[in-house]
Amino acid sequence: MRYSFVMNLEQFIENFADLFDETDPDTINATTQFKDLEEWSSLLALSVIAMIDEEYDVEFRGDDIRGSNTVEDLYNIVKSRVE
Fold first, then answer.
1. How do residues 12-53 score in pLDDT, each as one tens digit?
2. How far apart are CA 28 and CA 76, in angstroms?
3. DSSP category for residue 23
4. What domains can be seen in the chain, in order of their start residue?
5. CA 59 to CA 31: how far, in whole Å?
6. The whole model's pTM is what?
7. Distance CA 60, CA 78 (A)
8. What is the spatial distance between Cα 34 and Cα 69, in angstroms, rounded to a whole number?
């Protein structure tokens, strides 16, 4: 089932930032190099994969995360698979 909505970068950033416990969500934006965040871990990577599957019904893999640098990179991959 594909969602019939327009993906929104701001909402994606908010969903992404909600996964962090110790990082101020206001410090996360489209150009954030998420792997450089102090709190980033393999567990958070799995949480990102689960969030993308749940919120956007998109299959996302570790390779997608490894190939991305910014939050917007992740968003663009998800957006390309939703459309």
1. 999 999 999 999 999 999 999 999 999 999 999 999 999 999
2. 16
3. S
4. 9-20+30-82 (1.10.1200.10)
5. 23
6. 0.90
7. 8
8. 7
